[in-house]
Amino acid sequence: MIQRIQSIWFLLASICTVLTVKFSFYTGNKLDAITKAKVFVQLNAQSDMLLTVLVGFIVAACLIGIFLYKDRKRQFLVAGITALVAIINIIIYISETKSFVEGQYSITSSITFLIPLFLLLAARGIWKDQQLVKSADRLR
What we know:
By secondary structure, this protein is mainly alpha-helical. It has a single domain (about 5-135), classed as Butyryl-CoA Dehydrogenase, subunit A, domain 3. Helix content is about 65%, strand content about 10%. The protein has helices at about 5-20, 50-65, 70-95, 110-140; strands at about 25-30, 40-45, 100-105. The longest helix is centred in the last third of the chain and has 30 residues, at about 110-140. The protein is elongated.
């Protein structure tokens, strides 16, 4: 059913992923290549094409994962792969911060770290459902 707990975790992960498009992960100054002047820049999912593609994939996978409730094995696979992509997304964010001359992490960067957590909680919920079904089959 759609009302299972993992559907809520998938929905929260997709909402957090959409929020990373608007809110910054890192803010600071970069050197302009032409004028060598410091330019204030916010790093978010729109800053880099690879980040934008990864965010789009994560949102789509989360929403697809919600509607795979009849196939728990595939839903578990989607949750795991999406969590790995979310971790890769975080690694790319952190590597992008090295191009800044000075700056600081935004408080909204915590949203990015919640995405793999929610996906792992969804995978845990799917695993518990699978174990419940196996135990019910043993009783029959």
